[in-house]
Amino acid sequence: MTVSAKQAQRIKVLLVDDEPNILQFLELGLVNEGYKVAAAQDGQEALSLAESFSPHIVILDVMMPGMDGFEVCSALKKERPVAVIMLTAREEIEDRVKGLSLGADDYMPKPFSFAELLARIQARVRNQFPHLLEEVTIGPFSVDAARKEFRFRERELDLSPTEFELLKHLVFHHGHVLSKSAILDRVWGYDFGGEDNIVEVYIRSLRDKLQDRDHKVIRTIRGAGYRVDLV
Questions:
Q1: CB-CB neighbours of 18 under 10 Å
Q2: What share of the chain is helix, strand, coil (3-state, %, to 5)?
Q3: Are strands 141-144 and 149-152 parallel, antiparallel or unpaired?
Q4: Which of 29, 45, 163, 191 has the fewest CB atoms within 10 Å, i.e. the most exposed one?
Q5: Which pLDDT band holds residue 75 (cuts at 50, 70, 90)?
Q6: How much of the chain, in percent, has pLDDT values that exceed 90?
Q7: CA-CA distance, 69 to 15, in Å (whole number)?
Q8: Residue 164 main-chain phi, psi, to 5 deg
Q9: Angle in degrees, CA 220, 200, 171, rounded to 5
Q10: CA 123 to CA 114: how far, in whole Å?
Q11: What residues does 108 pair with on adjacent strands?
Q12: Which residues carry this modification: 4-aspartylphosphate (predicted)?
């Protein structure tokens, strides 16, 4: 699933890097994709811009003079619900662990592919700001997160709130096997005190509403969990 140019117009990306060539390259590429972009060359400027620009995504270089990317990430995460993708020329595992522990949502070493960075931006938007996408089409599914509407092969599905969240989680992660425990954590919450067979009950209901009698849409992967295939 990709973010369309129309959808990208709702998404603000703040670029932070002390190398002008990288900033220009990223800004031109993202603007061409439709995103709203602001750029900063140091940490203080980035924090100031974040106040006025209110970005959804921050592409943040680690190695900068003065305030480094770790400090900027920590400050941003304390102030606003922003997704941070950190860039670094250093590949040490310790750096990645430090960035993630400070709240970074993703990590990419330099040099990087613009196509891969774009895919990671889109993944962060889908996971953290799905309301910005409005209606999204994924294979035979259409989901409007704002209106809580789901369609399958042009047919609107009558779903309960929990069924909606479960199907959305499965569809947004299509092609991946999701365990019952992972589904419980994401859809029902970490503090859910019930039995994990509740997932089976809801999967059965979704299959009925999808008319998925042969289990070709929501597949059971024995001993592992469930996987949605776009058929």
A1: 17
A2: 45, 20, 35
A3: antiparallel
A4: 191
A5: very high
A6: 58
A7: 12
A8: -60, -50
A9: 60
A10: 14
A11: 87
A12: 61
pTM comes to: 0.60
Q: Which helix (H) or strand (E) holds 203?
A: helix 197-210
Q: In the chain, which ranges are E strands? A: 12-16, 36-40, 57-61, 83-88, 106-109, 135-138, 141-144, 149-152, 155-156, 218-221, 225-228
Structure tokens at 105: 């949502």
Residue in this structure with the two tokens 């996408």, named with its chain if needed? 133
pLDDT at 191 over 70: no
The SS3 call for residue 193 is coil
Q: Under 8 Å CB-to-CB from 33, ≥6 apart: which residues?
A: 5, 8, 118
Structural domains of the chain, with CATH: 5-131 (3.40.50.2300), 134-228 (1.10.10.10)
| Number of Cβ within a 10 Å radius of residue 25 | 14
Q: Which residues contact 119 (CB under 8 A, 6 or more apart)?
A: none
Least confident interval from 42-56, 66-80, 130-144: 130-144
Q: Provide the token pair at 45.
A: 């400027």
- Distance from C-alpha of 84 to C-alpha of 189, rounded to nearest angstrom: 23
Tokens of 64: 């900068």
Question: Does the structure show a pLDDT above 60 at 1?
Answer: no
Q: Which two tokens stand for residue 61?
A: 């270089």
Phi, psi (5° rounding) for residue 145? -65, -35
